[in-house]
Design brief:
Layout lengths: L1 H9 L5 H20 L4 H12 L6 E4 L4 E7 L3 E7 L4 E6 L3 E5 L2 H8 L2
Antiparallel strand pairs: 1-2, 1-5, 2-3, 3-4
Length: about 110
């Protein structure tokens, strides 16, 4: 920021100073929308998916583990990963990548 102020101080011509400030403010506005607002929709959709997760949903974790939700707690979920040995694992909710509706959902996730 100090470098930017030094450059502005050197270029204080009669009309160029105000033009430069307008350009800088415009760049800051564009960066804001690209960095913060661009992720708002996917983030809200993901938060809604995690909030609506319930028992017996089939899920896939970010590590690729598939399982069925056994219990939903405040920030954790318990997932049964093996039916034959009744193996259960506990994950934080943020570790869930998606709720799988059908096998075709897995194929769409693989293409990303």
């Amino acid at each position: 920021m100090n470098v930017l102020l030094a450059i502005l101080a050197q270029n204080q011509d009669a009309g160029s100073g105000s033009k430069m400030w307008i350009g800088i403010l415009l760049m800051i506005g564009v960066f804001y929308f690209v960095l913060f607002r661009g992720n708002a929709k996917p983030r809200k959709k993901r938060e809604q998916m995690l909030a609506n997760m319930q028992k017996n949903d089939r899920v896939m974790t970010i590590g690729g583990i598939l399982g069925t939700v056994v219990a939903v707690k405040d920030k954790e979920i318990v997932v049964k990963v093996d039916e034959s040995t009744n193996t259960k694992m506990t994950f934080i909710k943020d570790a869930i990548r998606t709720v799988v509706q059908e096998e075709s959902d897995l194929k769409m996730e693989d293409s990303r």
